[in-house]
Amino acid sequence: MNTDWKSYPWLRISLVLYAIACCCPALELTTTTREHLTPVTHDNMWGVQLLMRGFMGIFFGIVAWFANPLWVVALLLVYLKWVKTALAVSAASLVIAFTSFLAIGKDLAVWESDIYHQHPSALLPGFYLWMASLAVVPLACWLRITSMRNLSITLLLCAALHTPATAQNANAVQATRPTAAQVIERIQKNAGVAWRSQTVDTFKAGDPDTPVTGIATTMMATYDVLRRAAAAGDNLIITHEPTFYGHKDETAALATENDAVLAAKQAFIEEHHLVVWRFHDHWHARRPDGIQTGMIRALGWEKFKNANDDRLFVIPETTLDSLASNIKERLGIRTLRVVGDPALRVTKLAVNLGYPGFPGERHMLQRDDIEALVMGEGLEWETIEYGADAAAEGKHKALVILGHIPSEQAGMEDCAVWLRGFVTEVKVEFIATAEPFWPAK
């Protein structure tokens, strides 16, 4: 999974505070006589010592140490974009950490016939840094979750209270955020290609005049992607492929059928005030092709590319099996498929991403300077059968079939980087579309 950690600076703050806390004195332990009146020694425990030994406090009814594993779980949940769950877990971590104050004065050790007692007597700077590192996570999660609603709430309060100065400040905040339509206008100006009158690159859902709180680029605006985008505070989703199950995103037939899947997706978009816009034709039309460039980078094949045709590559000789395994690992594909002899020696490759169709794919395989075609997807009675027949006839040909999503995904990751060059008022991040298939055991 790809996560842009630059979009989560507060996570780094939490980690830094935690590391500093480990390097500071965090707890003072006092040893006293039985009557607890005459201190014998005062010893400081450092944060790292408490981290290593604090779990033993459970034997004395002290549970504060267990805030640490919950904090780690919260960070992982944020990494997975489950921000609401992360908020609950991190808040629980903070509550447990607060029980540290109840440990002051509690006996931790008794020895020599009950003459000497040891107990925490003071919380030192390392403890408070530790608490701060824990507090950062729920606070940041809360701010992220409410980021889509803060502006409207502020404006409502201003209207209710009739405070012009406050309303002016709220309007200033709103003015700094472009609308979805304004973001798309910038894309059109920066695309570097003439904008077509006939194109699928249009708004698919939502109000284009919605102020943007965050932008997510993705390969496909699946329900899962929409859910993760909303949790991350991104209300403009720029998708490469269709949202509503067809190239032109036509929904009339499904609506007539009262389709429950379509209705749930549309309801989620409306409920979370999302705007979905497709960026397909013109991202491909750029030179070099935005999708192709991202995939070449992800494959690590820049130095093997043909100078005149970025679909052709000459790589160091390898077997078809090794080639497929390397691609599978680099792109993180679960269900990559291969047609041809696994031991076939290959060096001359072509890359046809997405679904270009049988004519374009067979023309590649007809060439003598292409031994293996790395492709997105194709109909099994067209390119797949053609490649299988070529291999069975003894021709030096093979297919490596990535699947449509993995074959273009990295191009939309590059799109997020490109957008950051001219959209600076709001966060721009890439949300990977999960591969829908999994291999049966």
Commentary on this structure:
The protein has 441 residues and is α/β, with parallel strands linked by helices. The chain folds into three domains: 5-147, no CATH class; 180-286 and 410-430, Udp-n-acetylmuramoylalanyl-d-glutamate--2,6- Diaminopimelate Ligase, Chain: A, domain 1; 299-402, 3-Layer(aba) Sandwich (Udp-n-acetylmuramoylalanyl-d-glutamate--2,6- Diaminopimelate Ligase, Chain: A, domain 1), CATH 3.40.1390. The chain is built from 16 helices and 14 strands. It has a five-stranded mixed sheet with strand order 5-8-7-6-14, sandwiched between helices. A hairpin with a 4-residue loop joins strand 3 (109-111) and strand 4. Helix 1 packs antiparallel against helix 5 (125-161), helix 3 (67-79) packs antiparallel against helix 4 and helix 5 (125-161) crosses helix 6 (164-176). The longest helix is centred in the N-terminal third of the chain and has 37 residues, at 125-161. Residues 1-7 and 148-159 have low confidence and may be disordered.
For the residues shown, what is the average pLDDT?
Answer: 87
Please give the count of helices. 16
Helix and strand succession? HEEHHHEEHHHEEHEHHEHHEHEEHEHEHE
Segments where pLDDT lies below 50 for 5+ residues? 1-7, 148-159
Strand order of the largest sheet: 5-8-7-6-14
Structural class estimated from helices and strands: alpha/beta
Radius of gyration: 29 Å
**How many E strands?**
14
